[in-house]
Amino acid sequence: MAEAFLFELLQMHNSVHNPEERCGICLEEYGTLSRETGTMEVEIRLPCNHTIGSACIAIWLKANNTCPVCRHEFFPAQPRPYLEHGVIMNGLDDAEQPYEGHQQTVSEINADYCNELSLDIGISMISGLIAQKLTESENWSQGHTSWCLVSVSIYMASHLTGEPRSPREIATVTGVEADHIRFCYDLIYPERDHLANAHLLSLLQDTFDAVVPLNWPAPGYEFTDEQIENNHISHMLRQGYQRVCNELGLDADVVEISIQIAENLGAAGLMSALGPEGITAAAIFMAAHMAGCPVAAGRVAEVVGTSDVAVRAAYGVAHAHRYRLLEHAWLEEIGQGSVERVWGRLPLP
């Protein structure tokens, strides 16, 4: 319920533009980076007509169902989940978990774990909806701990949203063994379509451009932890290169060329010599010239966050390995012309 309300609340039509106003929770001006949340606060109008910062209200609603100003109730309070039995986790079942003031709800457990895994609020909302659905099902709520259900829900949500986390990664945060996460997912997999209600599908489509059929992770051990983690690293790498290229006004071809160059520089054993920033800068500087839209080394350095000298030094090393960095057929396939013409666009170090 909280996730659904928050999703509707954080739509653009609820945003307000009063740049001199301050959030009533963190007391920061709207439109500035909040020191409390580390994110940009957008002023959001609540159903009771009070306004609060977007990040602060998201945190508030993890544990509350009211307005932080007037205590107007936005949705029914969620009952505390009863303690499940039957699955032992690290030698303790739910009834034996350390007491921390109150028994955490599934929603709170989910929010905490997603935060520790650096998953954004959209993914947290998806996993929260799945966890709530599992909790409401007698088939699952009576045979599995809340920690287990949340772990499996995060595993599913991370794949559905294109930010996959492996069972091993999730286990380091939740304490539920990786093999147990996989085992429970295999049990759930045949019934996965029952989890995808209209709200979940709407959230996936509107926020993550997901399409039916959904990208559920494969059951069993078709993908190892290493493969999932490498896929996640590749995804993060692509996002980083897209961000830099977008800021430099470079198109998708430059992104593809620069990623190929960077991966081959790493495969050539140059990561330790150049470092991540050096490889990024050299790859994008080189790719921009090869695609016929050169960018100055100083400008690349500014966006990547390094120096002009460092970019030129890294490019010098990359230039010496240039013939090993890209397949000739691949260059021609993406429409960059003859190999000789492409290499001829590169400046001397």
TrEMBL record:
Top-level division of the source organism's lineage: Eukaryota
Presence of keyword Nuclease: no
Gene Ontology MF annotations: TBP-class protein binding; ubiquitin protein ligase activity; zinc ion binding
GO BP term (any one): protein ubiquitination
Chaperone keyword on record: no
InterPro entries (UniProt xref): Cyclin-like_sf, TFIIB_cyclin, Znf_RING, Znf_RING/FYVE/PHD
Keyword list, A-Z: Metal-binding, Zinc, Zinc-finger
Record-level GO cellular component terms: cytoplasm
UniProt name for this protein: Transcription initiation factor IIB
Domain RING-type, residue spans: 23-71
